[in-house]
Amino acid sequence: MSLDVFLSHSHVDKVFADAICHRLEAADIRCWVAPRDIRPGGDWAEAIIDAMDKARMLVLIFSASSNNSPQVRREVERAVNKGLMVLPFRIENVPLSKSLEYFISTQHWLDAITGDLEDHLNQLCRSVAMLLERLPPAAAPSQPAAAAAPQQAVPAGFGAPPAPAIDPAVLAAIEQALAQELGPIARHLVRRALLAAPSRQQLVAALAQEIDDSAERQRFVARCHAAG
């Protein structure tokens, strides 16, 4: 099922996230919010990526906690990379960190620092509804590809050689190197990239594109090369 809004917030601001989610869904705006929409025992990183694939925009609940949260930064970063509109909803008057400023400094902000919270929630609902009307509808989920016809075995010495396998120890080192830059989401990104990048060189190149910061990207590639 497609979604309208991905709610990004620090766990410290869960009360605000729940209130915003309740108000938006009362207006028939479909939301995704953690931890409510993550299955018990489910993979958090995979659930976040799947939700962003289905969402049409991200509402950032901006506070001192979310401003300094690496997880929130990664969510905003991935939303921007996916072309999602980001709407910050500021609940605390704190300076914007440089890591978030890079992604949302030019965005339109909604402030809920002073005044009645109910009025601010109503304004948020109106703004989200108006923006959703301007955005294209969510893409329909892709249909599974038809099963390929079974291939005949190729005798040894004929045909193209099989794709090189990646040593499990090297693969674990690559995942660990990516996790040092992007956190737990690395596990899901590695598994997804393996589907289209069967060799070590292709995998490292594909994963490096997931890192926006050039210094972090170079550090990741260097760690992968050092892994052997």
Automatic annotation (TrEMBL):
Domain of life: Bacteria
Residues in TIR domain copies: 1-124
InterPro entries, per database record: DUF8082 (IPR058395), TIR_dom (IPR000157), Toll_tir_struct_dom_sf (IPR035897)
GO terms (BP aspect): signal transduction
Full protein name: TIR domain-containing protein
